[in-house]
Write a structure and sequence with these properties.
Elements (H helix, E strand, L loop, with lengths): L7 E11 L2 E7 L11 E4 L2 E9 L2 E6 L1 H6 L10 E6 L18 E10 L4 E6 L13 E4 L2 E4 L7 E6 L1 H6 L10 E6 L1 H16 L1
Antiparallel strand pairs: 1-2, 1-6, 2-5, 3-4, 3-6, 4-5, 7-8, 7-12, 8-11, 9-10, 9-12
Organism: Ilyomonas limi
Catalytic activity: 2 6,7-dimethyl-8-(1-D-ribityl)lumazine + H(+) = 5-amino-6-(D-ribitylamino)uracil + riboflavin
Pathway: Cofactor biosynthesis; riboflavin biosynthesis; riboflavin from 2-hydroxy-3-oxobutyl phosphate and 5-amino-6-(D-ribitylamino)uracil: step 2/2
């Protein structure tokens, strides 16, 4: 489980297709602290460390992950948001993030304000019930608050610290980002849909 508070960024050193999977070597300043079989959030995707080097670690994304996330477009030199799982005695500074990406969204607009930025994203209308005004949303692993929510768009505000310490700085209009909706909202929607079926 994660919080959406990005710990550091990593650089893709290599990306290789292996059958239906993709294998990535990621260089970061915490790679030397990781362990084999550890679950790490990469752009909001929970991936397992399967090999280590002194300053890099390797993860494998299966076909399902490549279909539902932006991992299939990662290439050498790309910057990836990284977060280790939350310690049980830690503070939940963001919101509950599972690392299970629900969908991707496309950046449709970026506004540069006086000291901050606003990013607007378009998502699939099938997820409209999971996005609420002032609700939590995870974008490339970053815990953010959604506003100006419509049936297929939402906006997030980015402060300078987040901008300089995550890969949101590399997102442009047309960029594809990973989205994880609030897990509590997903359970409520599931319960509501089951109640409708039983009536």
């Amino acid at each position: 489980m994660f919080t959406g508070i990005i710990e550091t960024t990593g650089k893709v050193l290599a990306a290789e297709q292996q059958g239906s999977n993709a294998v990535f070597w990621i260089q970061s300043n915490i790679s030397n602290e990781l362990k084999i079989d550890q679950s790490i959030s990469h752009n909001g995707i929970c991936l397992t460390v399967d090999q280590l080097q002194p300053d890099a670690h390797r993860v494998t994304a299966i076909a399902e992950t490549l279909t539902k996330t932006n991992a299939g477009s990662w290439k050498e030199g790309d910057l990836i948001n990284i977060e280790r799982c939350m310690p049980m005695n830690g503070r939940l500074d963001g919101h509950i993030v599972q690392g299970h990406v629900d969908a991707t969204a496309v950046c449709t607009e970026i506004k540069t304000l006086a000291g901050s930025w606003e990013y607007r994203f378009r998502f699939d209308k099938q997820f409209a019930a999971l996005m609420i005004e002032k609700g939590s949303v995870c974008v490339n692993g970053i815990s953010l608050t959604a506003f100006h929510v419509t049936g297929d768009h939402f906006t997030v505000a980015i402060i300078p610290y987040t901008y300089s310490h995550t890969n949101i700085q590399q997102v442009r209009e047309g960029s594809l980002v990973n989205i994880e909706f609030d897990v509590i909202g997903k359970y409520i929607q599931r319960i509501a849909s089951l109640n409708q079926l039983s009536q």
